[in-house]
Amino acid sequence: QVQLVESGGGLVQAGGSLRLSCTASRRTFSTFAMGWFRQAPGKEREFVAAITWSWNDGRTWYADSVKGRFTISRDGAKNTVYLQMNSLKPEDTAVYYCASDGSIIDSTTTLKEIDYWGQGTQVTVSS
Questions:
Q1: Residue 64 per-residue DSSP state
Q2: d(CA 78, CA 112)
Q3: What distance in Å separates the CA atoms of residue 8 and residue 58, rounded to the nearest whole number?
Q4: Is the Cβ–Cβ distance between 74 and 80 less than 8 Å?
Q5: CA 115 to CA 127: how far, in whole Å?
Q6: What confidence tens digit (pLDDT) does each residue in 54-109 have?
Q7: Residue 72: partners with Cβ closer than 8 Å, 6 or more residues away
């Protein structure tokens, strides 16, 4: 079993920045990728960004809505994935969930395919 613990959420004004962190309790040989999803009130959970663990180049994927504003990165020594969020908009307001899986995580990944989820961290962007 892998536990994912997120941190870094909070309240920020539009145009501001936040950095989310997700630390895994351990990384198994089957962990291929980690990423972030988000769920706004009344909406379905959606893909935000992901990064591979197993490839040296740390390949990344982003939702179109966050490209150019969000950056995902990893620190293998700390088993931690980061999501740097810049130029935040009110529509970015959501609970952000960390995810870990044995396959690529991208916009086509269904929620039930994800192996492990974090508990979520609230991000609120005021206008």
A1: T
A2: 27
A3: 22
A4: yes
A5: 35
A6: 666 689 999 999 999 999 999 888 889 999 999 999 999 999 999 999 888 999 99
A7: 35, 36, 49, 50, 51, 60, 62, 81, 82, 83, 84
